[in-house]
Amino acid sequence: MEKGLKLSKKDLKEIDAEKKRNRKQRTEFVSAYAKWLKKTPNKDWSKQQNKLINSQINKS
């Protein structure tokens, strides 16, 4: 008895294409966020980070 999931070549190609799309989207997001950080005053940036961190702490 074999273990694991067998995927067709078509499935593997679709998975590979999805991985490439996801990587491209992540790269674009990081680039856009870096640009935003560079043009946003530290005071504004810090407020947003504070809200994010506090929301995560409150959830735990």
How would you describe what is shown here?
With 60 residues, this protein is mainly α. The chain contains 2 helices and no strands. The chain starts with 8 loop residues before the first helix and ends with a helix. The mean pLDDT is 89.
Topology summary:
Layout: H1 9-39, H2 42-59
Mean pLDDT across all amino acids: 89
* Overall geometry: elongated
Q: Mind describing the biggest β-sheet?
A: none
Q: How many runs of DSSP E, i.e. beta strands?
A: 0
- Poorly predicted ranges (pLDDT <50, ≥5 residues)? none
How large, in whole angstroms, is the Cα Rg? 20 Å
The topology string of helices and strands comes to: HH
Total helical segments: 2
Q: Helix coverage percent of residues?
A: over 70%
